[in-house]
Amino acid sequence: MRMKTIAPLAAALASLANLAWAGTIDPAKPAVCAMIETFECVPGENCIADTPEGINLPRFIKIDFAANKAYGEHASGEERSADILTQKVDAGRIILQGIQNGNGWTAMIDQATGNMSLSIAGSQVGFVIYGACTQM
After folding, report:
1. Is the pLDDT assigned to residue 22 strictly greater than 70?
2. Carries keyword Signal (predicted)?
């Protein structure tokens, strides 16, 4: 009886996963990215694993490539946006760069997989964030 319940659920989840990652990330259309793993690094110390909320980032970020903007909403409801100053596609990867609150950031999104890496450089502190993006 239990297998009869699990099999349709597994098939449904597999279909959703295929639907979510079908095709490539097209910078002509908006995307949404989930922040999954975060690390905070300072000189002379080991990097510390944290959550997006722990380093004051929203869990999800919407990227509007056409408007050169990234938007996010914190759990508190506070909304933030960042200007994308440069945007390039190279070797199947979308590279975004910007400056916010005196910190520089660079994001890379693999167009085929949606995998994302984001780095933020501050004064004597750096953050590395790994996530995944999908087309909206």
Report:
1. no
2. yes
